[in-house]
Amino acid sequence: MSLTPEQLAEIEAQRATPRPTLRAVSEGMEARLYKAHQVLDHGLIRVIDYMGDDAAIVQAARVSYGAGTKHVSNDEGLIRYLMRHWHSTPFEMCEVKFHVKLPVFVARQWIRHRTANVNEYSARYSILDREFYIPQPEQLAAQSTVNNQGRGEVLSGEESARVLEMLKRDAATSYDHYEQMLSQDGQQGLARELARMNLPMNIYTQWYWKVDLHNLFHFLRLRADSHAQYEIRIYAEEMCRIVADWVPLAFKAFEDYRLGGETLSGRAVAVLKRRLAGEVVTQEESGMSKGEWREFCEVWG
Ligand SMILES: Cc1cc2nc3c(=O)[nH]c(=O)nc-3n(C[C@H](O)[C@H](O)[C@H](O)COP(=O)(O)OP(=O)(O)OC[C@H]3O[C@@H](n4cnc5c(N)ncnc54)[C@H](O)[C@@H]3O)c2cc1C
Question: Which SUPFAM superfamilies does the record cross-reference, listed alphabetically (predicted)?
C-alpha cells in the first residue's frame, strides 16, 4: 500500500488527539479508527467515522430513554430476533464512513449499491496517480466453464507470464500518454477531464463511502459471498472484520442468519420434508429447474 510519510503522519496526528464524548463508543471501532488496511496491491480501506454500537440497535428497538441495554444476553437475544425477522430499521441507527481506494472496475460494481452516500476523488480537478491493479499470478484464471460470470482454472506457465506482461505494459503506456497529453511543455495541454478517458479500468480511484449498518449488511451479504468477484470480495471480507470489531453482537447474528444461513423456496421446503419422511425425490419430481436443483443439492446433499 503506497501511503506517503505525510499521509501516515496525518493519520497518526488524528489518532493522537482523542476527545471525551457522551456519545456511544465502540472500543473495537476506536482501535480501528483512521488506520489504513491494505487491500489488493495499492488499495486500502479505513474507517473515518462511525455512529452507534450494539447497544444503539437495542436502544432504538426498545425506543428507550436511556442506554436501552439490559443484560448482554438479553441484548444478544433481541439483536438475533431482529435479524431473524428482518426487522431492519434498528440496524439503520448505526452508520459508518469509510475511505476506500480501489480499482475503477471494482468501483463500478461497488457503486451499484445505491443506498450509500459517496464522494469520489475528482479526476477532472486532480491528476490520477500512476497506480494500477496488477493481479497476483494465482488470480489470473481462465473463463469458468460452469459459471458464465466467473473464473475457473488458474493460467499456467507462458500464458500467465504473457498476460501479466501485457497488463503491465498497457498500463505504463496509457499512463505515459496521459502525462504527455496533460503536459504543458510546448503545447496547450489537454484538460484533465478529457485526458483520463484513455486510462484503463485497473487504475485506482478513491472515495468516501458512508452507509448505515442495515445496508452495509446487504452489501456484505452480496459481496463477501463466494459468487462475488475476488477483487471486490476481499474488500468486503476486510469490512467484515471491521464490522465484527464495531458491533460484535450484530455481526455474529448477521454471520449466522445471512452469511451462514440459507433461504429456502416453497419447493425446496417441500422436498426437504419429503426427504425427512424417507422419500427419495428426483429433480424431475421436485418442480425445480436443473440449475435450482444443482444449487439445492450443493447445500443439502
Ligand atoms: C454476484 C453478482 C453479480 C451481479 N451481476 C450483475 C450484472 O451482470 N449486471 C448488472 O447490471 N448488475 C449486476 N449485479 C448488481 C446487482 O444486480 C445489484 O445492482 C447490486 O448488487 C446492488 O444491489 P441492490 O440494488 O440490492 O443494493 P442497493 O442499491 O444498496 O439497494 C438496497 C435495496 O434498496 C432497495 N432499493 C434501492 N434503490 C431502489 C430503487 N430505486 N427502487 C426500488 N428499490 C430500491 C432495494 O430493495 C434494494 O435491494 C451483480 C451483483 C452481484 C452480487
Answer: Thymidylate synthase-complementing protein Thy1
Does residue 63 sit in the same domain as residue 206?
yes
* 272 Cα to the center of ligand 1, angstroms: 30
CA distance 300 to 298: 6
288: containing domain: 266-300
Q: Are residues 32 and 158 in the same domain?
A: no
Mean pLDDT confidence for 75-86: 96
pLDDT 10s digits, 184-212: 999 999 999 999 999 999 999 999 999 99
Average pLDDT, the chain: 94
User: Which residues form the catalytic set?
Assistant: 223
- The answer, yes or no, to whether residue 68 has pLDDT greater than 70, is no
* CATH of residue 62: 3.30.1360.170
- How would you class 232 by CB atoms within 10 Å of its CB: exposed for 0-12, middle for 13-18, buried for 19 or more? buried
Question: Does 79 lie in the same domain as 30?
Answer: yes
Residue 148: CB within 6 Å of ligand 1?
A: no
Nearest CA to ligand 1 atom 53: 222
**Residues 6 or more apart from 96 whose CB is under 8 A from it?**
47, 49, 50, 51, 210, 211, 213, 216, 243, 246
**Of the candidates 42, 45, 207, 208, which has an alpha carbon nearest to the alpha carbon of residue 131?**
42
Give residue 8 CA to ligand 1 midpoint distance, Å.
Answer: 35
Please tell me the pTM assigned to this model.
0.94
Mean per-residue pLDDT, 201-229:
97
Last residue within a domain, chosen from 158, 175, 201? 201
165 and 234 co-located in one domain: no
Does one domain contain both 99 and 231?
yes
What pLDDT score does 73 carry?
A: 72
The protein residue whose alpha carbon is closest to atom 15 in ligand 1 is 112
Tens digit of pLDDT for each residue in 137-196?
899 988 888 777 788 888 988 999 999 999 999 999 999 999 999 999 999 999 999 999
